[in-house]
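2024-03-11 09:14:02 DEBUG pipeline.ingest accepted 1 chain
2024-03-11 09:14:02 DEBUG pipeline.ingest length=275
2024-03-11 09:14:03 DEBUG pipeline.predict start
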Amino acid sequence: MSEFVNNNILEKLRAEPKNLWKRLLVTAIVIAVVIWGSTSITYNGVTDKGATIAINIIKGILNPETATLFNLGPNGVPYLVLETMAIAVLGTVIGALLAVPVSFLASTNIVPKPVAMVFRALIMLIRTIPSLVWALVWVRVTGPGPFCGVVTQSVCSIGMISKMYITAIENLDTGVLESLDALGCNTFEKIRCGVIPQLMASFVSTAIYRFDINLKDATTLGIVGAGGIGFPLQEALGSGKWKRVGSFLLVLIIVVLVFEWISNQIRNRLARGRS
């Protein structure tokens, strides 16, 4: 019996396609690309000023400015962090809701392929432009402030969330819908009982994942005037107020880590099918 199994394995191995040359070719291309890309990198070491700034930032995090840390006014850390979180929450919620119709209209198993391709091109266009560029555009349209940050994050969220929603929609179990159709269910009942239960966990998990990204991006977008803690952080860095920088970064690190843990717990429960 064991000899038969061994012969079977040997036959399978011999039947495998001989693609060693393809692997060598791919490896050579990757190495060539890495070497070509590395030619643009010029490392001149860390300057004395750069090392001093890095040390000062670490010292600032370990010894933050308590006046800014506990200031409940518009210039204090709690207010600015809450504003940053609010921008991320609104941007995620609006983007996730707008992504639902866009995703259905871009799914080839829901609408005709030409219609789906048009909406997929729109999603690709949104994803192609970086969030920082979107922020620069919307600052000119809406003016600086939190509203600009919300609009920017909503648009950027549509691009990423729609792409992941489409995958979930196209993987729908059509057998469930056919069974409901055989039972005489109308369209609304089929959506409520056959579509939403299949998509809800994936949609919620995707929105939570996007919120993690938006929470971090909201700080960067603030640098160009899109509200949040980014602009005061840039000002503190520019003026060398390291304790203030430390107070901003310390709270940001804590908030991001806490929300990262919470979102991982929620996504894990959704993945295991528990509410």
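2024-03-11 09:14:41 DEBUG pipeline.report The two ends are 49 Å apart (CA to CA).
2024-03-11 09:14:41 DEBUG pipeline.predict end
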